[in-house]
Amino acid sequence: MNTVTLAETQTVLIGMDPASLEDLIQVARHRRPVALDPAVLERMKPSQQWLDGVVDGMQADTDTPPIYSINTGFGSLAGRQAFADPSDAAELSRRLVLSNAAGVGRYVDEEVVRATMFIRIVSLTQGYSGVRGDIVTLLVDMLNHGVYPAIPEYGSLGASGDLIPLAHIAIVMTRSHTGDDEELDSGEAFLDGKIISGIAAMASAGLDRLPLGAKDGLALLNGTSFSCAQAALALFDAQNLLETAQVTAAMTIESLMGFGDAFIAELHEARGQRGQIAVAARLRELLAGSTLVDGNASTDPVRQPPQDAYSLRCIPQVFGPIKETLDFAAGIINNEINAATDNPLIFPTLPDTRKLKAVSGGNFHAEYVAFAADFISIVVTEIGNITERRLFRLDDGTLNRGLPDMLVASEQVGMDCGYMLPQYLAAALVSDSKTLSHPDSVDSIPTCANQEDHVSMANNAGRHARQIVANIEIVVGIELLMAAQAIELRLGLPETAGTPGPASAATVDLLRNTASADGRRIDHLRRDVVMYPRVRKAVELVHSGAVVDTANAAVAGTYERNSLR
Q1: Among 207, 269, 454, 555, which is 20 to 30 Å from 356 by CA?
Q2: Residue spans per domain, the chain
Q3: What is the pLDDT of residue 160?
Q4: Cα within 13 Å of Cα(260), Cβ side
Q5: Which pLDDT value is given to residue 560?
Q6: 150 with 187: CB under 8 angstroms?
Q7: Which residues of the chain have pLDDT under 50?
Q8: Would you state the pLDDT for residue 4?
Q9: By the 8 A CB rule, do 423 and 478 touch?
Q10: Which 3 state secondary structure label does DSSP give 14?
Q11: How many whole angstroms separate alpha carbon 458 and alpha carbon 385?
Q12: Could you tell me which of 549, 544, 562, 558 has the C-alpha nearest to residue 505?
């Protein structure tokens, strides 16, 4: 799938090619409109036609065997009380949506709702779910008209899919087949920042709510879309965070006059780990042109022994496996965005010797997503772990190679705390992340009379991954502030003859030319000021990708350098 440029806007086309993580981000975070390729609606027709044949047979009083989710109950009620009246099949779908809309907790962010709806559209258009084309068309219209169902964060076990969160979408977009449409049974949605009923939200957008048919209810609810949405957003931010952390780490290395030996290519090639080799190469790129770093592949180090603490020396050995783990998670997430994950799935092309084309399985089990989210949580916590150690080293006058305590050259020593408290904040956030990164996927609590006796807890894993990424974005934002301060302090020392490389210099310029959250410049700290506006803006620079973009432009030689002070 590609983002195609139209006359006035960029529309993400859901077509026959796989959707990408970038497509999801464009829709979820940047509110790009969505369009359906007519080919995917054609792809959906065979499974719908088979299902229509089953319903037609029921209407003709043809003896119809129990077919899960079409004329039976759900979960441990599968196979019980098979019925022949097609209206009962429609009523079954509606009651399923009502009963499953049972979530509690704070409402998730709009970007999570949009990502979930996008993934659900992609999943249903794979053509195995038996749903009508107007259902996915309505989901597209809801995205394009800004209808965002209010989804509570708690409820999903990650098997049988994300039933409860997805029901909070389905209840807004659907109604009873009988024509009765109780506002109290229409769910909740956001409009202009306020919670209103599903009926009111859809009416405001000029959209009609749809009656459900056989299997439609379970097709909308049974799948991994909500857990996958959270993991996908966490992954995208984690990838950007790792790139940013390499920039801020290089700045710290320069400010502490670190040794270049730790990043020589031959050293990393001797180990042969792909991620480690890539990170070392990136650090050499970021440190290129710096005369603050001691030694490189062609120049002997001056100071002996040429060894830094592990939080500087071992960045490739720590960030390398993080990079490879995120790459692994990306493969899982990209596959899951395009996966058919409800149950049963319908395969009309099965041999004629098999009349039942609906196949019951377990694609709703989100273990893949749970593992991916847990791995993201673990490795992002490690970004925070090693980054916080560099912050501690920058603050400590016995470890920072001649810089003032707490990175503030106070006129009266002891009057100013400088960067003492941001390191406290980082320590608190890293500790929180360590707790949250306990793998959710190793937990399981049986449900549904033990029919669903093993679940993935992927929703919990995704929630925790997003929180951990948000925590560590703050930690890296603090390193951005402290490393910039430290570089300037280093350059102000009479014994310093060197200069930072273009990447670090440009990043310092970015910070100094940015207004903090309260409108004041993020200038060099000479005495204590209110810190939280600076921290908030630094985190914005991290999250937005501005730090990485600035460093990349400097490396490419396209950044016009200003003065450091």
Answers
A1: 454
A2: 43-223, 233-347+363-555
A3: 85
A4: 24
A5: 55
A6: yes
A7: 1-8, 562-565
A8: 38
A9: yes
A10: strand
A11: 24
A12: 562
Report CA-CA distances (Å) from 273 to 278, 307, 319, 321: 9, 21, 11, 8
19: nearest Cα among 170, 28, 215: 28
Residues 114, 28 contacting (CB under 8 angstroms)? yes
Strands 3-5 and 10-14, bridge-based pairing: antiparallel
Contacts 24+ apart (CB under 8 A), 445-449: 445/157, 447/157, 448/75, 448/76, 448/160, 449/75, 449/76
Map 111-135 to HEC letters.
Answer: HHHHHHHHHHHHHHCCCCCCCCHHH
- Residue 561: predicted pLDDT: 53
Q: For this structure, is 68 an active site residue?
A: yes
Amino acid at residue number 260: G
Comparing CA positions, the residue from 250, 350, 273 lying closest to residue 554 is: 250
The pLDDT value recorded for residue 7 is 34
Catalytic choice (68, 107, 148, 559): 68
Same CATH fold, 233-347+363-555 and 43-223?
Answer: no
pLDDT of residue 279: 98
pLDDT of residue 476: 98
Write down the number of H helices and E strands in the chain: 19, 12
DSSP string, 217-243: HHHHHSSSHHHHHHHHHHHHHHHHHHH
Q: Which of 155, 148, 154 is nearest to 117 (CA)?
A: 148
Q: Quick one: tokens of 551?
A: 């460093």
Length of the chain: 565
Specify whether domain 233-347+363-555 bears CATH 1.20.200.10. yes
Question: What pLDDT score does 86 carry?
Answer: 78
Q: Is 91 left (phi over 0), alpha (psi -120 to 50) or beta?
A: alpha
Q: How big is the chain by its Cα radius of gyration, in Å?
A: 28
Alpha-carbon distance of 429 to 473, in angstroms, equals 10
User: pTM for the complete prediction?
Assistant: 0.95
State how far the Cα of 552 lies from the Cα of 290, in Å rounded to an integer: 15
Give the DSSP letter of residue 515. Answer: B
pLDDT at 559 (0 to 100): 56
Separation of alpha carbons 219 and 124, rounded Å = 8
